[in-house]
Amino acid sequence: MDFNDSEEEASWREECRSWMEEHAPAVVSGSAADDTRVGAAAYLARAKQWQAMKFDAGFAKITWEREYGGRNGTTMQQIIFGQEESRFSVPAEAFVIGLGMIAPTLRAVGTDAQKAQYLNKLLRGEQVWCQLFSEPGAGSDVASLSTTATRDGDEWVINGQKVWTSGAQYSDYGEIICRTDPDAEKHRGITAFIVDMKAPGVVIKPLKQMNGGASFSEVFFDDVRVASSNVLGDVDQGWNVAITTLMNERVAIGSGGGGGMRTSISDLISLAQKRERNLDPLVRQRLADLYIHTRVQRFVGMRSLTAASKGKVPGPEGSIGKLSGARIATALGDLAVGLTGVSAIAGDDDTLAVGQSLLMAPAAHIAGGSDEVMKNIIGERVLGLPREPRVDKGVSWRSVPRSA
Ligand SMILES: Cc1cc2nc3c(=O)[nH]c(=O)nc-3n(C[C@H](O)[C@H](O)[C@H](O)COP(=O)(O)OP(=O)(O)OC[C@H]3O[C@@H](n4cnc5c(N)ncnc54)[C@H](O)[C@@H]3O)c2cc1C
Asked: How far apart are CA 404 and CA 186, in angstroms?
């Protein structure tokens, strides 16, 4: 493991940093919390502007082929660009799902026609995409999903409900997984589709969050028609497509693709330094403790980076990083609000961002796999403990008891 940039990496970092310093200020907002305050339309316009700038400069997907808008760069170059981008509060969140999870899926399993139709527009930020996997009765166990797709000639008809769909209200397209063979085991008999989010029968109802925003929605499908050419991968093989998307999700979250924490440990240290007097000794201890945890997490992250730089797929350490990242997010938010006091809910843009960091922290414990699911993965794959019992193994999806 080597924590330092090679000469080549240092020069690439410098190139990314100077491009960011020149271009990012055009889209950076006064506060990272602006997306909940100025409304989705203004936020989206800035996000699209930023994505187009990145695409035109060859930073949209550094490792990809030129025909899809990449520059045939290395994984390490992509990681370094991500690190430099995360130093600026650029509006990248709208594209975390489309670029981080769905574009790699389209590239891996899409037909030539699908790639030609969607990839360039997706990378340039002309299209926003969402991920329609979770349902009211299928979250951690998403393979038990109930939304159906029934073949009707050259089309499929979708009926059912998805939930927690981030960005659904401003998305153009979605990747949806549906039950197409209820008589097969739950992981079989699922098919993935590309669905037009503006199609007749799609009803999107945003869910209000405790931070004042509404970043995800319930989405209802009522006889929504999808052409057969929009099947993603093979019919009844959608679980493999979903896994491709989910494998990319942790990488997208882990690389801090714009969603990340509203307040960092360095913001917190600056806040504490401004309080020259009356710094509670307990705050001092918590700050030091948190600093140590962020360092440890950085070193765990280095394992993934080292694996990536050698072309390997990151292992279960991704779950350790995800779990500890969520704990750090909660501790950071808690301490930040402790330091700013009432201004976290009635202050200026900077202190309001601190309040947002506490209100957004619970999401980190659930999105992309809950803490308990991460612990199961660590237990089974790192500690070698017996696997969880599976009552639905070898049984058709239709015969597994579930609530209506
Ligand atoms: C900010 C945010 C954004 C999201 N965006 C999207 C999106 O864009 N698209 C999408 O499809 N979904 C999205 N989700 C949904 C997310 O994937 C699910 O919330 C998550 O998988 C958990 O599912 P659930 O909410 O149904 O909880 P459940 O699976 O019902 O879990 C409830 C509780 O039971 C625990 N639990 C479940 N199974 C086990 C087990 N085997 N062992 C031990 N404990 C267990 C969980 O840890 C949790 O505490 C998002 C969620 C959040 C918070």
From this structure: 17
Verify whether residue 14 is a known catalytic residue: no
Ligand 1 midpoint to CA 369 (Å):
6
pLDDT band at 37 (very low <50, low <70, confident <90, very high): very low
Report, at the CATH architecture level, how domain 130-244 is classified: Beta Barrel (2.40)
Summarised one tens digit per residue, pLDDT across range 352-391 is 777 888 888 999 999 988 999 999 989 998 899 999 888 8
DSSP letters of 260-287? Answer: S-SS-HHHHHHHHHH--S---HHHHHHH
Domain with CATH 2.40.110.10 in the chain: 130-244
Q: Using the mean position of ligand 1's atoms as its centre, give its distance from the Cα of residue 311 in Å.
A: 30
* Cα(171) to centroid(ligand 1), Å: 21
CA of residue 26 to ligand 1 center, whole Å: 36
In the set 249, 276, 380, 388, the catalytic residue is 249
Classify strands 148-152 and 190-196 as parallel, antiparallel or unpaired: unpaired
pLDDT attached to residue 309: 59
Pocket test for ligand 1, best of 95, 140, 221 (most atoms within 8 A of CB): 140
DSSP state of 179: E
C-alpha to C-alpha distance for 46 and 29, rounded to whole angstroms: 9
Q: Which residues pair with 346 in a beta bridge?
A: none
Please name the helix (run of DSSP H) or strand (run of DSSP E) that holds residue 218, with its range, or none. Answer: strand 216-227
Higher pLDDT, 12 or 357: 12
**Chain-wide mean pLDDT for the chain?**
87
- Within the chain, all domains assigned CATH 1.20.140.10 are found at 261-382
Is the per-residue pLDDT at 32 higher than 50?
no
Q: Are 313 and 305 in contact (CB under 8 A)?
A: no
Fold for domain 261-382? Butyryl-CoA Dehydrogenase, subunit A; domain 3 (1.20.140)
Dump pLDDT digits (tens) for 153-212: 999 999 999 999 999 999 999 999 999 999 999 999 999 999 999 999 999 999 998 888
**CB-hemisphere CA count at 13 Å for 353?**
18
Question: Ligand 1: residues whose CB is within 6 Å?
Answer: 97, 130-134, 139-140, 164-166, 216, 363, 366-367, 370, 372-373, 376, 388
Residue where the block lists tokens 């030609």: 116
